[in-house]
């Protein structure tokens, strides 16, 4: 049996669409992602959706740092393109998704709100730690960033929040360095095989 400390660990991400200063967020994001990799180990894999705003900044940061990423979309890329008000931003996000380690789409039978909620539940199920971009203000609705912060806290998932107003970062739930990988797989390939099978079953 492999040493659990060498298992790949997953960094979940969720963030608001409204980003006041994307350039400033990029600087803080890079620093925080590097710190998370130091915490979770060199085999860290990022797992996120790909909505407009903070998700795109996170994806680009991971690509620049050569951190493998798993993307879970609530709807098809074509639907995403129609829903995104900024065609240029979506084009960039699509390019980032194309170089992801793996990409999955929630089955089309789910309504949009349910699909977004399902993505959030997948992230919460697998993440060993979370990075959020959030204003700290209460939000209404299922699968919003504020709700995901609360659920991660209830599950005891180590979570760090980048304040989208001040661009400072703090721990919501401090990390436990001795905590084993929640996925429990010894290799990246084992994890991907499992996710391939899971999404195939849901299709």
Helices and strands in order:
Layout: E1 10-15, H1 22-40, E2 45-48, H2 54-64, E3 69-73, H3 77-83, H4 87-98, E4 102-105, H5 112-126, E5 129-134, H6 145-154, E6 159-163, E7 169-173, H7 188-202
Parallel strand pairs: 1-2, 1-5, 2-3, 3-4, 5-6
Antiparallel strand pairs: 6-7
Fraction of residues in β-strands:
15-25%
Structural class: alpha/beta
What does the overall shape look like? Answer: globular
Strand order of the largest sheet: 4-3-2-1-5-6-7
Unreliable runs, pLDDT <50, ≥5 residues?
none
Question: What is the first-to-last residue Cα distance?
Answer: 33 Å
Total of helices? 7
CATH class: Alpha Beta
Structure characteristics:
203 residues, alpha/beta, Rossmann fold, 7 helices, globular
Descriptive account of the structure:
The protein is α/β, with parallel strands linked by helices. The chain has a single domain, classed as Rossmann fold (3-Layer(aba) Sandwich). It contains seven helices and seven strands; from the N terminus they run E-H-E-H-E-H-H-E-H-E-H-E-E-H. It has a seven-stranded mixed beta sheet with strand order 4-3-2-1-5-6-7, sandwiched between helices. It is globular. The mean pLDDT is 87.
In short:
With 203 residues, this protein is an alpha/beta fold.
């Amino acid at each position: 049996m492999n040493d659990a400390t060498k298992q790949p660990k997953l960094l979940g991400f969720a963030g608001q669409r409204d980003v006041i200063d994307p350039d400033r967020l990029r600087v803080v994001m890079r620093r925080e992602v590097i710190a998370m990799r130091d915490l979770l180990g060199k085999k860290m894999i990022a797992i996120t959706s790909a909505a407009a705003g903070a998700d795109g900044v996170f994806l680009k940061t991971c690509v620049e740092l050569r951190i493998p990423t798993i993307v879970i979309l609530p709807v098809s890329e074509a639907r995403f393109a129609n829903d995104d008000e900024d065609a240029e931003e979506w084009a960039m996000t699509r390019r980032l998704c194309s170089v992801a380690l793996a990409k999955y789409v929630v089955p089309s039978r789910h309504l949009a709100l349910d699909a977004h909620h399902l993505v959030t539940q997948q992230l919460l199920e697998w993440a060993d730690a979370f990075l959020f971009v959030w204003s700290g203000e209460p939000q209404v609705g299922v699968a919003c960033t504020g709700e995901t912060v609360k659920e991660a806290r209830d599950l005891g998932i180590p979570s760090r929040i980048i304040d989208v107003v001040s661009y400072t970062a703090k721990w919501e739930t401090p990390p436990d360095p001795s905590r084993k990988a929640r996925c429990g797989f010894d290799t990246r390939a084992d994890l991907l095989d499992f996710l391939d099978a899971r999404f195939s079953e849901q299709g």
